[in-house]
Design a protein that fits this description.
Layout: H1 7-11, H2 29-40, H3 46-55, H4 62-72
Length: about 80
């Protein structure tokens, strides 16, 4: 099939993967900076990030943090949200 016949299919944007929760959290500028630093720090576990977020009054699960973190680090199967 010629490419012109596929234009509608090629240009259609479909959201892929799970909806990002972590990238859309309502955080102060200071909290966002701390979270971003923790996300790229390899020695901080994603479960620890979840615990700190819970201390801040934010309920989020470890799977969401792990998925978002992979995206921030540029790893495979990571979140594609815009920070």
């Amino acid at each position: 099939m010629p490419s012109s016949e596929l234009t509608e299919f090629e240009s259609k944007q479909i959201p892929m993967g799970i909806k990002c929760i972590v990238g859309n959290l309502n955080l102060s500028t200071e909290q966002r900076a701390k979270l971003n630093a923790a996300l790229v720090a390899p020695h901080i576990r994603h479960t620890t990030i979840v615990a700190v977020l819970k201390d801040w009054g934010i309920e989020v699960n470890a799977q969401s943090v792990s998925h978002h973190r992979r995206g921030v680090r540029g790893e495979a199967n990571g979140c594609k949200c815009q920070l």
